[in-house]
Amino acid sequence: MPPAAAQLFGNPCACGPAQNAWAVQPAAACYQTVPVTTYVQEKQTVEVPTWETVYENREVTTLRPETVARTVEVPTVSYQNVVEYQTVNRDMGRWITRYHPVSKCSPCQIDPRPGVVG
Fold first, then answer.
1. What's the domain of life for this entry (predicted)?
2. Over the stretch 22-62, which tens digit does the pLDDT of each residue have?
3. CA distance linking residue 86 with residue 89, whole number of Å
């Protein structure tokens, strides 16, 4: 396919020599040939993997566990709660009777005991 001709590209004022910005000039258009990209459909042959399931009859040896009943003595532990009572003598304190002599003073006499009471 031939490239397209006459497509507008870039700034149209940048084509000619430097121009006075105040002067009124006719607009100049710049054209450039640009290649055009095209898409074409193609057909390709591709190999795709497939799986096929095949069943075969074969002889197979299987092992089954065979159980035999036996009586075996198994050691076991059993616990029993035991309560023991023990007599313990403890010093729990005691009452002691102490006698303090209280002297009777006559009302005119001074108490000879030291402290607040005397």
1. Bacteria
2. 555 666 777 888 888 888 899 999 998 898 999 999 898 88
3. 10
